[in-house]
Amino acid sequence: MLIHQRTLQKEVSLRGTGLHTGKECRITFKPAPVNYGYRFIRSDIENSPEIPALIDNVVDVLRGTTIGINGVNVHTTEHVLAALYGLQIDNCSIEMSGPEPPVMDGSSLPFAEALLSAGIAKQDEPKNYLVIDETVEFHDTVNTVDIVALPLDSFRVTVMVDYKNPALGSQHSGLFDLEKEFLKDFAPSRTFCFLSEVETLANQGIIKGGDIDNAVVIVDKSMNNEELQSLAGKLDLEHDHLAIGENGILNNRALRFQNEPARHKLLDLLGDIALLGMPLRAQVLAARPGHASNVEFVKQLKKYADRNKLARQYQHEKKAGVIFDINAIQNILPHRYPFLLIDKIVEFKLDEKIVSIKNVTMNEPFFQGHFPGNPVMPGVLIIEAMAQTGGIMMLNGTENIQEMLVYFMGIDKARFRKPVLPGDTLVIEAVMTNKRRSVCQFDAKAYVRGELVCEASLMATVMPKTK
């Protein structure tokens, strides 16, 4: 895999009509500095507002992925981003004179060819890969969508589609090497839709720039001449331009690949993965993906990346089954002997859940007085161990973590079920229940040998240290 970040050698432009908005747009790709990422610039709006192509900026996923900030949007970003991501270009400024990139032929190939014509320049800074070392997954049981990322020291994507429609049937496709396969095997695959959808989309004003030259229309219903004439009118086409194809495609258009729809779904997935903001090292398996599910999957990747950002910063030695060891914990929390009451973090889902381990030994200083001859861990210290566990979850992603402290604001519903004795191992699970700005609430439970020994609801806030 490539090591260094890449950008363009010079700028290059294309012009055309947006698929959904129907508006003319000139799109210009420009070189950008290291760590810039992909940023769209709306030159047609006063002060040329900038919209970074990041998952947090997604505002709509209806028939495409739209990003925006403060009401300024860029529609249908996926084909442009797929071209950049597929060519492994890391930094690019994308200037647009309209709200939507031109649809061109409905694929990423025109964008990819333009980018290659501009030349690719290697930069001094290394790429910041997100390396997946555990399963990250998204499941939508209602729409039977499953997308998972599995550990792999390279990048591969496999997609399966099944529309339960005889006009399309089940298809699958796989990309195993971006450098060798993207440009010739996936960039040319065009967007597609079913004939039964076209009239509805036209009535909704969603495909104002659509025509038979920039989309593959799969015939899944019969239409008479009158219906064809009506549809042609709605699409601003002449009647004799439309015909029910004998090969299952409107106007008998030939597919570029036998499984072109599956390949285009893979292309869309690449464009949406680009919103992660960093290249990925993983095996991605996707069943029946779409923009809505792609975005939710990338959000899961973002949570994983944010969690690992803290791990990369403080956990310098990789250990099986350990997210943070005691050395990393001491770099995150200010607590020290005798008040550091957790030994390691073994599970961490950003803003959702964290699990810590506390090994309780007879050497604990509190056993000397609590109680002589009958040592029992004080309940208030179990609560404190819960608080420290939740504190790590709250501090994740906080800038200047060494200058911040977690202050607890409330303890509710505390219950002590069984005593904790020397030799016990406390497993503490904290689950986030509410988060507003710097204030969080979470429910914590402590177990010994699988039995609940303590539970409580806690509230805390993150504040700067007092000078």
Automatic annotation (TrEMBL):
Its cofactor is Zn(2+). Its main location: cytoplasm. The active site is at H291, H370. It comes from Chlorobium phaeobacteroides (strain DSM 266 / SMG 266 / 2430). Pathway: Glycolipid biosynthesis; lipid IV(A) biosynthesis; lipid IV(A) from (3R)-3-hydroxytetradecanoyl-[acyl-carrier-protein] and UDP-N-acetyl-alpha-D-glucosamine: step 2/6. Catalyzes the hydrolysis of UDP-3-O-myristoyl-N-acetylglucosamine to form UDP-3-O-myristoylglucosamine and acetate, the committed step in lipid A biosynthesis. Involved in unsaturated fatty acids biosynthesis. Catalyzes the dehydration of short chain beta-hydroxyacyl-ACPs and long chain saturated and unsaturated beta-hydroxyacyl-ACPs. Its EC number is 4.2.1.59, 3.5.1.108. GO terms for molecular function: (3R)-hydroxyacyl-[acyl-carrier-protein] dehydratase activity; metal ion binding; UDP-3-O-acyl-N-acetylglucosamine deacetylase activity. Zn(2+) binds at H79, H264, D268. GO terms for cellular component: cytoplasm; membrane. PANTHER family: UDP-3-O-ACYL-N-ACETYLGLUCOSAMINE DEACETYLASE 1, MITOCHONDRIAL-RELATED. This is Multifunctional fusion protein. It catalyses: a (3R)-hydroxyacyl-[ACP] = a (2E)-enoyl-[ACP] + H2O; a UDP-3-O-[(3R)-3-hydroxyacyl]-N-acetyl-alpha-D-glucosamine + H2O = a UDP-3-O-[(3R)-3-hydroxyacyl]-alpha-D-glucosamine + acetate. Keywords: Cytoplasm, Hydrolase, Lipid A biosynthesis, Lipid biosynthesis, Lipid metabolism, Lyase, Metal-binding, Zinc. Belongs to the thioester dehydratase family. FabZ subfamily. One of its GO terms (biological process) is lipid A biosynthetic process. InterPro entries: FabA_FabZ, FabZ, HotDog_dom_sf, Ribosomal_Su5_D2-typ_SF, UDP-acyl_GlcNac_deAcase, UDP-acyl_GlcNac_deAcase_C, UDP-acyl_N-AcGlcN_deAcase_N. It is found in: Cytoplasm. NCBIfam families: fabZ, PRK00006.1, PRK13188.1.
